[in-house]
Amino acid sequence: MDTTRRTFLAGSGSALVLGFTLPLLSRRAMAQGNTPFAPSAWLRLTPDHRITIVCGSAEMGQGVLTAIPMMVAEELDADWRTVQVEQAPVDQAYANPAFGMQATGGSSTVRGHWQVVRQAGAAARAMLVAAAAETWKTTPDQCRTENSEVIHADGRRLRYGDLVEAARRQTPPEKPPLKNPKEFRLLGQPLKRLDTPAKVNGTARYGIDVQVPGMLVAVMARAPLPGVKVAKFDDSAARAVKGVQKVIAIPSGVAVLASGYWAAKKGRDALQIDWDFGDKAGLSSAKISATLHEAAARGTGAVAKTGGTPDTAQASRTLDATYEAPYLAHACMEPMNCTASVTADAVEIWAGTQSQGPLQGILGQIASVQPGKVKVNTMMLGGGFGRRFAPDFVIDATLLSKIAGAPVKLIYSREDDMAAGFYRPASVTTFRGGLDAQGKAVLLRSNVASPSIMGGSGFMKIPESGVDHFAVEGIADHPYDIAHEHIGYVRREPGPQVWFWRSVGHSQNSFFMESFIDELAHAAGKDPFEFRRGMLGKSPRHLKVLEVAAQKAGWGGALPAGMHRGIAVVSSFGSYVAEVAEVSVAADGTPKVHRVVAAVDCGLMVNPAIIRRQIEGSIAFGLSAALYGRISYADGRVEQGNFHNYPVLRMTEMPAVEVHLVESSEAPGGIGEPGTPPIAPAVANAIFAATGKRLRAMPFDTAALKRT
Which of 80, 132, 398, 521 is most buried, by CB atoms within 10 Å? Predict the structure, then answer.
């Protein structure tokens, strides 16, 4: 659909959400003799008593296909047994208010849509009540709703499905009242996910499942680093592979198109390509590390935060430390893929993407068509973690289809994506902390050196301050009461493309910050929990989760021989999480995480079962990074390819996880990412308690823990 300013305001503005309808869906329903009541972009009701709720966000395991329906259904007073969910088309009506565009990321779906979709449900309920009152020739104040029924004060009842025709005639209310959270019947309940049956029975469709008549399959030899170009290539051996039909060079590399994936892969592997590395020749992890260390040590960058008088503050004792984290891949289980079909005046794609809205404009430019002529079919995502927010695989598929004159399914194998993909930035950060005579932290100086996601994303700009806030989050926004501090940022771009990775800057910076806070606690001769507790007087939500995690973990209590505890507390994406890890270290230096206790304050909860699962998954994700994650370079190329040399946590390594949810009346926070940042420092701090050795780099150097 073409989007106008009026359509956008109607679809994304609070009470005005009712101004947008779905004519395509309405026509389909009418053709079936089941004319719907579709008061907004978010829902429609049919005379057969079915309620369809439309979700504009992408489902990648985080539960949005259940969360959005729960929020709408709560205010609608719907019978949950009659609710079904449908993936939205691409339209600005479904823009995430947190972004201003239809996209999924930053743990923002629930908190971004909290008001908008609830108001859609509340307005629809008001219209159904008005319809029932009109039918009964009474007033709306004589009616109430429950389980998809309007109930009169005298006991008469009408089901929503019986009111569809009358409800369509009602005027949408301008400001429908929302429920007090104390009235919630669905929100806060651990309802079963709506997408589980399809995932279990195999009917859920992922991008990799798409088949289009006449489709060719493409596999690419992609440039190993940004700026690296094809000097020359020989495709004669590739064209000789049975099934190969075309070889096409595009700006990002050389693609082989064939009748199937295996033929395309064999053809791609047969290509002879000479790459012009330019100034990227000889790039290595050692050079990257040296560049970042030099920048962090010099510390002459932009100022992210300053307070007090850090240049003249007096401390009885100072402590210096340098921390480092490598580039990381997303390593999604489903390979990157997109199927594109470009015709003379239109584009249609099928992809698991986190950025449907921006793709309309991008692909319209690629194919030289109006954005409204770009149809994006959002498929299930087999893992996203930020990677599928990037448009590269969708752009390349569209470009190849345009050139080939046929539908094209482009597939990056995991090796392809890992070798020439988008990475979490490498980072080196220095700290200087100061303690007064009583052991209280009074000084914090930190310099962060890393590439910039904002500067390298292509759709964002670094502010005039020169600070990429993704690069310093988790440090510049720490919760501790420290009188004198200075946080600096130095941008360095060693070469690899950097991108959003689950929990973004918090993923490495919280490890740095919470580990250094532990170092200060040790230097002060104080218990790590009590040390943090004493600095959180101005941060009550941090303090609460810290105390709950410690209490539930039995902090200070006895543990089996050889086991030790570490603790960390982090706020990110509007939520607060503290984690306690119980860890042992074998004689060969191998750590074993036995148990993790997490306390979570994510504000008002939509579905506590989904919250618990997200925290569990986040912990596994973060442990993989802490113990194993590393993308390294030698001679300009990535050394990792798949899970054999980019390992992730195995089932036998997964600790027992307890998740304790803290009741809160605050607005909802995110939950897909906040469980990841605290786990690495909690484990590292436990390892220090066990061995007396401080780990200041990820992945953890277990060889350094070996007992002789």
Answer: 398
